[in-house]
Amino acid sequence: MPATPITPATRFFRPGITKVVWCPSIANIAAITRLEINAGSDLSKDVADISGWMVSGQKIDTPDLNSRFVSNIPGLTSADESSITYYQGVTGVDVRSLMPRDADGNIVWFDGGDIAGRKCDVFPVRVLSVGKQRSMGSEAARLVIQYAVTSEPAENVTIPA
What we know:
Strand content: 35-45%
Helix content: under 10%
Radius of gyration: 19 Å
CATH class: Mainly Beta
């Protein structure tokens, strides 16, 4: 008898669906509340690019004398270097006012949109730097904010109503 196939994922394109919110304060990142989300700032309209925001694991090799094969076990996990590129405001009124260097808060990723019952990821962060990209190219002025992920993110958290 063949294996039971999984239900295929409903595929999507991030622009127009994914939301990212800066929440300065969350009591329990594994159980974010609607009040905490609503008190945050939706950054989505100013996001030009995304880098990182993935939890990666290391492996620990566990060789033994019984075999030439080197087995392994899970080791430490960490978050990749993470940043978001935002559009820069000509008057200086932009995300810099929300997230200056050394600001602590949480970046909340609503990959499938901010819809109750779906899943989100909450990354506790500290702003490392707010860099201004300068270029003569044909693109809007941008800021790159680099974040340090300060503790283990809460992944696949159910979005509250």
